[in-house]
Amino acid sequence: MSRIVVTNSVTLDGVMQAPGRANEDRRDGFDLGGWAQPYADSVMGSVMAAGIGDAGALLFGRKTYADFASIWPAMTVENPYTEVINNIPKYVTSKTLPGPLSWNNSILLSGEATTTVAELREQPGKDIVILGSGELVRALMRWGLIDQYTLLIHPLVLGTGRRLFPDGGPSASLDLVDSRTTSTGVIIATYRPAAPVAPAPPVPLPGLA
């Protein structure tokens, strides 16, 4: 069985919208795009390179895929991720995106995301890494299909923007399995879903029994 691994940059208040470029995602009038760029360093680069380099495939929602497909095919080989991202299999969940997809090694999963990703996850292979794709992440969370979260938590509060875990989203209990801190103060935290914990019986407090 393959693992579904989420790798995303977030702020301290949970915003994941447009970390890379000013014009990456201006939905809801968001004008703070590119907020993650000043925090990049060699530690972050090595962690990201290792995660993507060890992946067997990438998995995207429609919007994130469209953004990546508009940028990466034209990237120069000087970028350390270019060759891997352009050549690795890329699965895209969408019921509206027309095929065939033009970006190299892109495969359209045209059914219900929870069903198609569950079938993909059952196949043997390396990790399948989700980049961005917040709506897809939350849908898969709800059905217990996320096996690991690698969150790059930036020391930054934006006060606005689309969050990875918004109000009203699915809940989850997680175990911290690894953490690293970069030279710029970013905490790279890796979490895996915790086993369900039965609620403890109430304990009377002294003087209140």
UniProtKB/TrEMBL annotation:
What residue stretches are annotated with the Bacterial bifunctional deaminase-reductase C-terminal domain?
4-187
What's a GO biological-process term for it?
A: riboflavin biosynthetic process
Domain of life (superkingdom):
Bacteria
Q: Which GO terms describe its molecular function?
A: 5-amino-6-(5-phosphoribosylamino)uracil reductase activity
Q: Do you know which SUPFAM superfamilies this protein is assigned to?
A: Dihydrofolate reductase-like
Question: By what name is this protein known?
Answer: Dihydrofolate reductase family protein
Source organism per UniProt? Cryobacterium zhongshanensis
What lineage is this protein's organism placed in? Bacteria, Bacillati, Actinomycetota, Actinomycetes, Micrococcales
